Structure formats: C-alpha cells, structure tokens
Amino acid sequence: RSLSERGARLALIGLEKAELARVAASLTGEADHWHADVTDAAAMLRTARLVQERFGTVDVVVANAGVAVGGLFRHSEPDAWRRVIEVNLIGSANTARAFLPALLDSRGYYLQVASLAAFAPAPMMTAYCASKAGAESFAHTLRTELAHHGVGVGVGYLTWTDTDMVRGADQDSTLRELRSRMRWPASRTYPLAPAVDRLATGIERRARHIYAQPWLRTAQLLRAALPSAATHRARRALPALEPASATIPTTLLGAGGAANDPAPRSDA
Known about the structure:
Blueprint: H1 2-5, E1 10-14, H2 17-26, E2 31-35, H3 41-55, E3 60-63, H4 78-106, E4 109-113, H5 126-146, E5 152-157, H6 164-170, H7 173-180, H8 192-205, E6 209-211, H9 216-221, H10 226-245, H11 254-258
Parallel strand pairs: 1-2, 3-4, 4-5, 5-6
Helix pairs in contact: 3-4, 4-5
C-alpha cells in the first residue's frame, strides 16, 4: 500500500491466492496478482514473463517470501526445517533468476528482505537464521555481479515486527518465553507501519542497506560480537526451556506457514 500510494504499479506474487486478490483490489494504484510458489523455479520463470507482458517493464523486484519454524535443531522435523531453507534462500534465488532479464533491461533494483537473524544467532531458530544469512550473502554477491550493468541490489533488515509470522511465533510457548528473556531492544515487537515506510523509502532510493528499525544499523556494526553474546545468554535460558521444546511439534509459523501445503501452487 505504501508503494502504491507513492505511484508504483504492483505485481503481487505468492501462495495466498484470495489474500493477493483482496490486496490488489484494495490498492489505490494499478496492480495485478499471480499465484505461484517461489520454490518452483519453472513457475517463477513463467510468472515473470506474464508480469512483463502485463506491465511492459519491471523496475523493482522485492524478494520477501519467507517462512519460519521454532524449536531446538536436534528435535526439529527435517522436512519442515528444509522447507524454510527452500523458501527463504532457494526461493529468493529463483525470484532473482526469473526477473533478472527484466531488471537488466530496465537497469532496475532488487531488494532481498533479510533479518537481524542474518547476523545475530537466535537459539531455536536454526533454519531461519541459516536461511537469512544465506539470503544476505546471496544478495551481497549478486550486487558484485550486477553493478557494472547498472542494476542495484539492496538488503532489508528487520527484527521482530508485527507480522503474521511473529504473531505465530508468539503462540509457541517456548519461543514466547525465550523472547521474554531477551534484552531490550531485541525483546520488543515493533509496529509494522514505520518499518514498511522505511523499506518503501529505501526502495525509492535504491539503497544498498535498509534498516526497518533504526537500531539495527548499530547492531550491524557490532555483528562480530553477537554470536558470543547470544551463546552467553542461551547458557542461562535454555536449560529451563529444553524439556518443553522437545514436546512441541515442528510446524511452520503464522499464516504464511499455513499457506504452505503440498498442493500445486502456480496458476502461471
């Protein structure tokens, strides 16, 4: 909505077909939507062609599809753990590959949505942290390959923000308890609107780094110290949480996780 109000024409792509249609219809500017799974490389290629046929040009691509699971790695369900990597990392690469020809034509901009989890390890979030670290590195490396073509590549960083994924995480009693033991400002859930406005402004500026919460810029500067700090706090928090974590099923969090099913996901 923020981008639409700033004059962007929008192509919305994702799994939640009814939600995509509802949002597209609610926007003030021109918009269309396609139902596709980012982990399906062939479907993303077809969808990219349809988007280009519909709009003629693609100036900006935002790779924002993401899912998460919680729980200790040794108790995690392998397929759910793998799915997080497939969506968050492989899906981002599929998105970039599908739209890269259009971005090369327009000398456009690709934004990879990452997370504080890309450089700050969070216990019980191994798949999410690994996927976001990989997505961050992928985007930085892609920038080096595309700079001489005039294509910009940015990385967006968010911490706990009021989305359906975070609300889903708060329904997991062990994750909720673990979060309550974090220090401020990492323990807080941040409102969506300011984060979205910073992302939209960063897209307009073709920014290399976008921090949805301003304090993440400082955290980025301290990233070398964060693994040791996280380990120190986990030593104290995890002994009380491990027994409960072992009994909680590994499920994808939030509405995005609920939309993840084995049925075919592309109309393209």
